[in-house]
């Protein structure tokens, strides 16, 4: 083991933060580590909005489903897929392809993961906020995002004011396939379900008991932001 591996394996989502600011050097380091991430064909199709304005933070917290830590965290970044920069360089750029949207989403996620890992290595904590996609049109208007720029998720960063357990992830026996896709091992799934149930029971003092399978049943048994397709297309993305 080494410090990099230790940091990655110790990841927890932090939703309570100390009232303590990050230094500009810390912020610069986090962004520099994000910039160092891999980029498909070196297109570099991500923009990061660092939101400092308190009223904008308040509104973003509201748009994300009233998640107070969006407003309370020392730093909040909105990670955007961005092909507008390329359009400014090449006005006749061939844009709007679904492949470009995939590249933008993948590259942005890689950058954000680098950023959080770097922050955690400095003793900071954070949590990703997919809730900004609850109201992508309002977020886009608030941040003045032009055509070909779409907000994908947010990231809170700060000094942790809590110490949650590491949430158990799918075991490699269910995640890794050899040479071809393999059927789900129900026995391994049952073991993992009990591990997740124990995690929730311990974390909540017995007020929540749910297996991973039950959580998936609830999550995938309902609509999931069906308006996103129209919003993405309204930005000129994934129209062909």
Automatic annotation (TrEMBL):
<keyword id="KW-0288">FMN</keyword>
<dbReference type="InterPro" id="IPR000415">
    <property type="entry name" value="Nitroreductase-like"/>
</dbReference>
<dbReference type="InterPro" id="IPR016446">
    <property type="entry name" value="Flavin_OxRdtase_Frp"/>
</dbReference>
<comment type="similarity">
    <text>Belongs to the flavin oxidoreductase frp family.</text>
</comment>
<dbReference type="InterPro" id="IPR029479">
    <property type="entry name" value="Nitroreductase"/>
</dbReference>
<keyword id="KW-0285">Flavoprotein</keyword>
<protein>
    <submittedName>
        <fullName>Oxygen-insensitive NADPH nitroreductase</fullName>
    </submittedName>
</protein>
<dbReference type="Pfam" id="PF00881">
    <property type="entry name" value="Nitroreductase"/>
</dbReference>
<feature type="domain" description="Nitroreductase">
    <location>
        <begin position="105"/>
        <end position="159"/>
    </location>
</feature>
<keyword id="KW-0560">Oxidoreductase</keyword>
<feature type="domain" description="Nitroreductase">
    <location>
        <begin position="10"/>
        <end position="77"/>
    </location>
</feature>
<keyword id="KW-0521">NADP</keyword>
